[in-house]
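Database export, one record per block. Field names are fixed; values are copied verbatim from the stored entry.
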Amino acid sequence: MFKVGDNIVYPMHGAGTIESIEEREVLGETQKYYVMKMPVGDIKVMVPTKNAEMIGVRDVIGNESCEGVLDVFNNNTQVVTSNWNKRYRDNMERMKSGDIFEVAEVVRNLTFKQKEKGLATGEKKMLTNAKQILVSELVLAEDLSKENVEKMIDERIDTSFNSYLANV
């Protein structure tokens, strides 16, 4: 069980800090919720405490893992299907996993695709979502501002994409 002040990740929503643990009645059922404040978007999210483990809520990665996440952008070898529907489903599964490395791969692959050929509306939205999830966790893990984390990610992606183009 997590406690107030813990930084946690809620898959498909991102990372945040538990501000409180409250009892609420929803649809006639009273249960406890973690009330998380998200560093990106300045919103609050409620996560049922009894389902937290089952839905994949986990601790934010440690500072020492951040470089490994950013290294995902240095690996510009990507296996991406040209079938839009399959690619979308594969990326959605990666994001649902809650694994920050998988989310970073989604950001990398969709950003490369966007730079090469552009993205369909659904994939643009997915890229925005994935980047927000990634940024929210790195903000808390690195104790940096949203702007600094976004700049780090963009610089890594640009360097990697330029390297990718040089080898194509």
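Remark 1: The beta strands are 7-10, 14-26, 29-37, 44-48, 58-59.
Remark 2: The longest helix spans residues 121-142.
End of record.
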